[in-house]
Design a protein that fits this description.
Layout: H1 2-53, H2 60-122, H3 126-134, H4 139-214, H5 216-252, H6 264-275, E1 287-291, E2 294-297, E3 305-308, E4 311-315, E5 320-322, E6 327-334, E7 340-346, E8 349-359, E9 366-367, E10 372-376, E11 385-393, E12 396-398
Antiparallel strand pairs: 1-4, 2-3, 4-11, 5-10, 6-7, 6-9, 7-8, 8-10, 8-11, 11-12
Amino acid sequence: MIGKDCSRSLFYILIFILSFQSVTGQTNREDLEKRRIELRNEISRINELRISNQKKQRSVLSQVEDLGQQIKTTEDLIKLTNQQANLLTRELTTNSNKIGSLRKELEQLKEDYARMIEKSYKSKSQQSRVMFLLSSKNFLQAYKRLQYMKQYTNYRKQQGEEIKANTLELQKLNSQLIQQKEEKQKLIAENRKTRAQLEENRKSQQALMATIKQREGEFAAQLKKKQKEIDEIDRAIDRMIRESIARANKETGSTSRNTYELTPAAKALAADFNNNKGKLPWPVRSGVVTMRYGKQPHPVVKSVMVNNNGVRIDTDKGGKARAVFNGTVSEVQAVKGANKAVMVRHGDYITIYNNLEKVFVSRGDTVTTEQEIGEIATSKTTGKTTLHFLIYKNDQKMDPADWIFRM
């Protein structure tokens, strides 16, 4: 009996471990599903933008950029869907093993129960139980026999309950297994459809790229001119930052022009901002990064290098810029070629929201995380609603992707 009890205990420990793994797998699956929905929405947003812009006789270059974006996001979606399918495969294997273990345990329980019922039947008469007690040599032995009979009855009842519980668990696992198989088949079918769309986009991209190669010199000249305009905007922002630091320090009696003189409260805010590195919310409710930080080859005309001091995020028309952290509005300025810029100070950290058509805040205002600070401008030529978002520490540029969650 001790050996069987020990075996049963080990079995339940195994079930607990497998159940814990199942809960963990469920959490991972939920995270993957959430990200998959985000990617699908991103692809839909890019596609809608492409369709609406097809009516505007946009340049071949812009069309290729949009297609490249959609292809990259579609590739990410396929990769993530494969991860989901692989996770489901592992969960299916785990559940199949659990079902096999439960079935063996259930068979053993039923065999033990059948033997008990048979033994109980042979000594079922009330008279035989009374005689068993009366044949005791003394009162103590009679008491022990009575306790044994009670324990035996309780054990038999417990066995029946265990059989019932294991049967229900088996039914539950079987249902989960069917559901997981259906989910996996659905993912495989969706992936097949997504791959077909990807191939179609790649063919369109190749056709447009052939046109670009024929006019590469012309496009390179256009991009270099555009980069000069971007550089001028960046210099204007750098000047705004230096002037803001100098003005703030003058108010506190400091002569430093490159770094903020921090009060204890400002130091605490800066430390809080730094502690949230990699966890800050996006500066838009929904959007796609179309140009990342730093010097990089142009996504279409590789011979041209482009530089970006922050990130460019395409969002929905009428989209709003949101503060990524608590802070104080230190500057609101018009920037030539980029509408208006709002600068928010977080101790000695700075976030800048550029290319705003409307501004909802004023210099000196206190803002909170995710508070709307302005409406992003939509380009009349490209039809894109693009936020230029930058992060600085004093006058030192920083990569926003290091700070914003999943950028």
